[in-house]
Amino acid sequence: MPDVAEALGVPVNRVRQLIREGTLLARRGDDGVLRVPADFIQDGAVTKGLPGTLTLLADAGYSPDEAIDWLLREDPSLPGTPIQALRANRGKEVNRRAQALGF
């Protein structure tokens, strides 16, 4: 968490708040420490489009762990992973796929 806080330029408490709000997702590692995937942070901010995509995934019934897995899983139709597409400013493509998951 301190690394994420430093990357975002905010206190650790703010990172925890972002996770509670669903703006960021974190997963506990084998050591019990909460970890945010590095690709979720870009240029000192939360990756553009990520919060909206996380909302769509939650609305589709995805748990936080399932959402992280989906964002980091290769998708040949993109190509690459959904988070890579978000980082490349291709959020509409990612969100279309996320919306389709709910139907």
Q: What is the fold's blueprint, element by element?
A:
Blueprint: H1 2-8, H2 12-21, E1 27-28, E2 34-35, E3 41-42, E4 45-46, H3 50-59, H4 64-72, H5 82-87, H6 91-100
Antiparallel strand pairs: 1-2, 3-4
Helix pairs in contact: 1-2, 3-6
Largest sheet: 2 strands, antiparallel
Q: Please report the number of helical segments.
A: 6
- Summarize the amount of helix as a percent range: 40-55%
Beta content: 5-15%
Structural class estimated from helices and strands: mainly alpha
Reading the helices and strands in chain order gives HHEEEEHHHH
Strand order of the largest sheet: 1-2
> What integer is the average pLDDT?
93
Report how far the terminal alpha carbons are from each other: 35 Å
Keywords:
two-stranded antiparallel ribbon, two-stranded antiparallel sheet, mainly alpha, 50% helix, 6 helices
What does this molecule look like?
α1 packs across α2 and α3 packs parallel to α6. It contains 6 helices and 4 strands. With 103 residues, the chain is mainly α. The chain is 50% helix and 8% strand. The protein has one domain. A two-stranded antiparallel sheet has the order 1-2.
Task: Provide a brief overview of the structure.
This protein has helices at residues 2-8, 12-21, 50-59, 64-72, 82-87, 91-100, and strands at 27-28, 34-35, 41-42, 45-46.
